[in-house]
Design a protein that fits this description.
Length: 250
């Protein structure tokens, strides 16, 4: 669905991206660095309300940069000997990292939307694998599913003991507001920020993750020191959920 809001966002993105390219061509110093592609960059381009959203070299978002930075820091450990289920694999840098795993499954409800090889169709509402994955990654997926508690429980069962789910969702400061696909698309866009979202999460997303049985660590970019955060343009919050049991977490 094309809306005025989306067109405005896309136009703004294009303009600021062009401005960054021009500044670089005119000799502006590249004083920032993208952890997703390793490029030195002049800055990051605007998308919507976020003035420092995209990497001009690879397109990575603040959350994609955050994930790469956390892996590079050793805060997150990609289980390359194990099995990884990567939902909605839009982020190229993470496809590169995760696909080095012994058993890598990129998946989506609609695999035709992706250029990634060997996509599998997975409906998280109807997902009954057991004790199979070491890592489940889903960025901006949970706000699309009709029943997120059912999906969290499905993810829990699909993970091995000690396995982790790395979840990122759009957040606001207020409590989570749930909707359904019975609400018209226009109203969903107004209430939840996008026509195919059925809820808007708040910080209480954490309570839902714990209610599904997980141990939870929240990694907020806001807690990273200001210089590092600015240098890499890091933003967003990772909900790192761990299924109890197995080897102790590092
Ligand atoms: Zn980049």
């Amino acid at each position: 669905m094309i809306t005025v809001q989306r067109v405005a966002k896309a136009a703004g993105k294009h303009l600021t991206k062009a401005a960054l390219t021009l500044r670089k061509a005119l000799g502006a110093r590249a004083t920032r660095s993208c952890p997703a592609c390793g490029s030195a960059v002049v800055g990051f381009f605007r998308y919507g309300d976020n003035a420092e959203w995209g990497c001009p070299a690879c397109g990575a978002s603040p959350r994609e940069r955050l994930m790469n930075w956390l892996v590079q820091q050793g805060t997150l450990d990609v289980p390359t000997d194990g099995a990884i289920l990567h939902m909605a694999p839009n982020e190229r840098s993470l496809v590169r990292r995760f696909s080095s795993a012994a058993d890598y499954t990129p998946a989506d409800l609609d695999p035709s939307r992706y250029v990634v090889a060997d996509m599998r169709r997975v409906d998280l509402m109807d997902f009954s694998e057991r004790d199979r994955y070491d890592l489940f990654y889903a960025s901006h997926v949970m706000e699309h599913v009709p029943d997120d508690m059912a999906v969290l429980r499905n993810i829990y069962h699909a993970l091995k003991p000690g396995g982790e789910a790395w979840l990122i969702v759009p957040l606001w400061d207020r409590p989570t507001e749930d909707g359904s696909f019975d609400i018209p698309p226009r109203e969903r866009e107004r209430r939840f920020g996008q026509w195919d979202h059925v809820r808007q999460y708040g910080p209480d997303f954490a309570d839902r993750i714990r209610a599904a049985g997980f141990d939870l660590e929240e990694i907020d970019a806001a807690a990273i020191d200001t210089d590092t955060r600015h240098f890499h343009g890091l933003d967003d919050r990772l909900f790192r959920a761990r299924k109890p049991g197995g080897e102790p977490a590092r």
